[in-house]
Write a structure and sequence with these properties.
CATH topology: Alpha-Beta Plaits
CATH class: Alpha Beta
InterPro entries: DUF34/NIF3_sf, N-reg_PII/ATP_PRibTrfase_C
Number of helices: 2
Order of helices and strands: EHEEHE
Number of domains: 1
Keywords: Signal
Strand content: 25-35%
CATH architecture: 2-Layer Sandwich
Distance between the termini: 16 Å
Radius of gyration: 16 Å
Protein name: ATP phosphoribosyltransferase
């Protein structure tokens, strides 16, 4: 029996104005697809929150000013990536679409039970 592809959750945070572009980019890279007979695509979960950061001296912030503490309405987006190649492509696509110098994201490897 063939081994099942590894599954990952990709989670990222983006300002509300950039969420649609970021989701489009990761979905085009293969994120958000659930294997199975339903053939679901572009699946994600999101919630609104507040991001906080203080840009350092060498920063070129998209929002805010160097040295100033900034609080920004941001959206947390979670989606499934099936296969290590898919999660790597999705992260690359996210970095290309996201307006921040250093987008906040993390990848969680899931167990298959």
């Amino acid at each position: 029996m063939a081994a099942a592809l590894q599954r990952f959750t990709l989670i990222f945070y983006a300002p509300t104005s950039a969420v649609a572009a970021c989701k489009s980019a990761i979905f085009s890279a293969g994120a958000g697809r659930y294997p199975g007979r339903g053939n679901y695509t572009e699946c994600s979960w999101q919630t609104l929150g507040t991001g906080q950061f203080r840009p350092g001296d060498a920063a070129n912030p998209h929002i805010g000013s160097v040295g100033a503490l900034e609080e920004v309405p941001e959206v947390r987006v979670e989606t499934l990536c099936v296969g290590e190649d898919v999660v790597k492509r999705a992260v690359k696509a996210l970095k290309g679409a996201h307006p921040y110098e250093e987008p906040a994201y993390h990848v969680i490897k899931l167990e298959n039970y």
